[in-house]
């Protein structure tokens, strides 16, 4: 009888052996937790399309940030739900906007937390597009001017990272120059560098009421079929001064994350987006999958592909499991 000379199973025999040879590690340090902040006081409204996630008033966002910090998660990213919208999204750079107030309040309560802000206008505009609309199209350069105003407003309120997400050409270089000229050279840029025109964003658009009133975003977000173009976008943002670059979504674009990891030596982030989260939650509610097991497997796959940071709505649950407190 012939027996195998090589037996890889030897190193799978016990949990301790498996931990010793594990190639990919996952920790709370890898997570950035998205938070939705809106007007009011004492508001904690569950988002129907994102079970377990909430629209929060500033006071409730502070409580959430305190919990996040206690779980060892180093960062949150804020999305604003403005009190009013207009054609250009001017509430995004209002000094007393909900995001600006949240930044100041969180920085005071949890100074060690890294505060990132999504810098886009889709939540703030009446038309739901990510910039200034001129004759039915997004005006790239007019949008950059407003993006600069918003970034400076966030920096003045205490943001550590500004995260431009509108996929405007030249947005990283423009913001870097704008921040530096105003004395905010220490504020970093987390660029949504390869953001694809994806069907996985549906639950998020419900959460922030940002579905476009006309057309779609395929004219400025990337074609899901293109990886070489993604590398070009990433390279441009690195050259323009991005401190961290992002691929969004994550699961359907693991190949893009892996390609980026091999090509660039800056930190790589990936957004485990709303549709990915909602599908897992729905399947678990039906009893079709083991929620915690699939959640951890999903997050590990994003890390394995090469992401240093994962923006994920599962951050708190995963952190509790990793810390053994769930």
Can you describe this structure?
The structure is a single chain. This protein is α/β, with parallel strands linked by helices. It has one domain: TIM Barrel (Alpha-Beta Barrel), CATH 3.20.20.70. The protein is 39% helix and 19% strand. It has helices at residues 15-20, 58-70, 98-109, 140-157, 171-181, 202-208, 228-240, 254-263, 274-285, 291-305, 315-323, and strands at 31-37, 44-47, 50-56, 75-80, 114-119, 132-134, 137-139, 161-164, 188-195, 244-248, 268-272, 309-312.
Task: Set out the fold topology.
Elements: H1 15-20, E1 31-37, E2 44-47, E3 50-56, H2 58-70, E4 75-80, H3 98-109, E5 114-119, E6 132-134, E7 137-139, H4 140-157, E8 161-164, H5 171-181, E9 188-195, H6 202-208, H7 228-240, E10 244-248, H8 254-263, E11 268-272, H9 274-285, H10 291-305, E12 309-312, H11 315-323
Parallel strand pairs: 1-3, 1-4, 1-12, 4-5, 5-8, 8-9, 9-10, 10-11, 11-12
Antiparallel strand pairs: 2-3, 6-7
Helix pairs in contact: 2-3, 3-4, 4-5, 8-10
Give a quick summary of the entry.
With 326 residues, the protein is α/β, with parallel strands linked by helices.
- Count of structural domains: 1
Strand order of the largest sheet: 1-4-5-8-9-10-11-12
Give the CATH class.
Answer: Alpha Beta
What portion of residues belong to β-strands? 15-25%
Quantity of strands, as a count: 12
Low-confidence stretches: none
Largest sheet: 8 strands, parallel, barrel
Compressed to H and E, one letter per element, the order equals: HEEEHEHEEEHEHEHHEHEHHEH
What percent of residues adopt helix (DSSP H or I)?
A: 25-40%
In CATH, the architecture is Alpha-Beta Barrel
